[in-house]
Specification:
The longest helix has 18 residues, at 177-194. The chain has a six-stranded mixed beta sheet, with helices on both faces. Strands 2-1-4-5 form a four-stranded antiparallel beta sheet. It is of the alpha/beta class and 270 residues long. β1 (5-16) and β2 (19-31) form a beta hairpin. It has helices at residues 47-55, 78-83, 101-111, 120-130, 147-159, 177-194, 205-208, 229-234, 239-246, 253-269, and strands at residues 5-16, 19-31, 36-40, 62-67, 70-71, 84-87, 165-169, 197-202, 214-219, 222-228. α3 crosses α4, α5 packs parallel to α6 and α9 (239-246) packs antiparallel against α10. It contains ten helices and ten strands. It is globular. The chain folds into two domains: 5-227, 3-Layer(aba) Sandwich (Rossmann fold), CATH 3.40.50.300; 235-269.
Length: 270
């Protein structure tokens, strides 16, 4: 069976102070077309290293990564860079403050030669409207926008070249709760409308509860649990997953009962 994205026995080893540090060790994951796979874990768990290997920022030390059944080369082609895009935690990292919003959105259209040159300005307006912003925001600078608006522009930029796989690296962690919920709703709607596939990197399980189809839990570079989101939240298998869920803010009586049940299970296994 050919998977949309496949990691096979992937490890990443860095040299640090004369020693080897295994940031990721022997990870195998398949991602199916159209799904949202969340990769969660605390700082240092290896989740961002996984994202960087998928994006080709650096290659695996061991193992392979395949996309649509073909091995991804260490040096990604223009076609690969078009198909696999990134939305970062800080949108200012991907938006040049010296460029207008419209210029930033038009750049990937020019680089990849998408659409008629004369119609690319119209396409920029369409992209802005697709992420819930007025088309005339194209004339504004990134610095004049709110954090949520900038993140919407960053999402539009990732989608400008008709990407298929979007790696979302903590895309809402810098936003307040209300704006975070709106951006998550936007991302979910875009995935369903466009048939996108997401790899969603986060330290916060609660963020992906209503958007992810499956959750991969990482601890110290190792994949410790991979399951459907509902199963992860209702009956997690690993103690580390239970601790992560126990740290999620509780707001309903049902979640109080779930937290208490998980804590009792963890204490019993200690």
């Amino acid at each position: 069976m050919t998977h949309f994205l496949s990691l096979r026995s992937v490890s990443k080893i860095f040299a640090q102070g004369g020693h080897e540090v295994r940031a990721v060790e022997d990870v195998s994951i398949d991602v199916e077309e159209g799904e949202c796979l969340a990769i969660v874990g605390e700082s240092g768990s290896g989740k961002s290293t996984i994202a960087n290997m998928i994006l080709g920022i650096y290659p695996p030390s061991i193992g392979t990564i395949s996309y649509r059944g073909e091995l991804l080369p260490a040096r990604r082609t223009l076609a690969h860079r078009r198909a696999i895009q990134l939305v970062q935690q800080n949108p200012l990292s991907s938006l040049n403050p010296q460029r207008s919003v419209g210029a930033s959105l038009r750049l990937p259209l020019d680089v990849h030669g998408l659409g008629e040159r004369a119609r690319r300005r119209d396409r920029v307006g369409q992209l802005l409207e697709e992420v819930g912003l007025p088309a005339d925001y194209a004339r504004r600078s990134p610095g004049s926008l709110s954090g949520g608006q900038r993140q919407r522009v960053a999402i539009a930029r990732a989608l400008a070249c008709e990407s298929e796989l979007v790696v979302l690296d903590e895309p809402t962690s810098a936003l307040d709760v209300l704006v975070q919920a709106r951006v998550l709703k936007l991302l979910d709607g875009l995935r369903r409308k466009r048939g996108l596939t997401y790899v969603f990197i986060t330290h916060d399980l609660s963020v992906v509860r209503n958007i992810a189809d499956r959750v991969a839990v990482f601890e110290r570079g190792r994949l410790v649990e991979l399951n459907q989101t509902g199963k992860i939240f209702s009956d997690p298998d690993h103690d580390y997953t239970r601790r992560l869920i126990g740290a999620v803010p509780v707001v309903t009586a049902e979640e109080v009962r779930l937290r208490d049940r998980l804590m009792k299970k963890e204490n019993a296994s200690a």
